[in-house]
Amino acid sequence: MIETPDVIEAAALDRAVHAVQSQIGSWKAATAIVLGSGLTFLAERISDPIRIAYRDIPGFPMPTIQGHRGELVIGRLAGAPVLVQSGRFHMYEGHSAHVCALPVRVFSRLGIGTVMFTNAAGGVRRTFTPGTLMLIADHVNLTFRNPLSGPVLTGEERFPDMSDPYDHSLRTLAMEAAARSRINLETGVYAGLLGPSYETPAEVRMLDRLGADAVGMSTVVEVIAARALGMRCLAISTITNAAAGIGPTKLSHVDVLQAAERVKDDVARLIEGILARI
Ligand code: HPA
Q1: N or C, which terminus of the chain has less Cβ within 10 Å?
Q2: What are the tens digits of pLDDT across the range 163-211?
Q3: Distant-in-sequence, close-in-space partners of 217: CB < 8 Å, separation ≥ 6
Q4: What is the pTM for the complete model shown?
Q5: 95 catalytic residue (yes or no)
Q6: How far apart are CA 33 and CA 73, in angstroms?
Q7: How buried is 124 (Cβ within 10 angstroms: 0-12 exposed, 13-18 middle, 19+ buried)?
Q8: CA 12 to CA 18: how far, in whole Å?
Q9: How far is the CA of 218 from the centre of ligand 1 (A)?
């Protein structure tokens, strides 16, 4: 049984921070990048990498699904010092929202002020075909979990404002980077669900009516924790499939990974283009 505390004690956070800090010494980055399904290759593009395996970080479980590694990689990407989270924790793996958000809390304690999230998502908007990239402008948290429940941790707000979760200036930078690289970047609302089953067609129709353009099983609780800490967030979804009931095909994780794989170079160029200007 995996350990998945539903509060994060300050001492547990200290232990994780200390484990990472002891490996990176005085090295500093302003930006963290959280890799979604099928994007682990981005960690291979980092120069002068320091790799820290999750097994060496107290409180970080090992990922249980294909397409996710279990390490933090620190180094340079597009010339910028970055910390890359290769392997994320999902609530469908049995983790609490607090465990899913633990890396973000560690990043903040390391002095990182900006987080770029990536994920794979189903397209709810009918014009989204597999391979579409979508900048998340806002989200709907339909996981009904929150990483801020429980005691307030130092540096966090009890009731953080969520009226602008995805930073405007970073979104502008992303649109400019996309235009320069001739990458089509849509903008939309991401609905975060618990999973792990994909949605039914009726649920996808509901999400459409709720204003969602894409649906996935990550990101929202991480963004909530990041905002409570005052971090700037940017998030990009790779639309890997039409959501259930929209297209004729059934959904599978293998197809999701393959679709993410096909556009991974665009995602990498986009992220590097943003980093070069951040
Ligand atoms: N639904 C939820 N999560 C997903 C999907 C989907 O259709 N595709 C990739 N992640």
Answers
A1: N
A2: 999 999 999 999 999 999 999 999 999 999 999 999 999 999 999 999 9
A3: 90, 91, 92, 192, 193, 194, 195, 196
A4: 0.95
A5: no
A6: 10
A7: buried
A8: 10
A9: 10
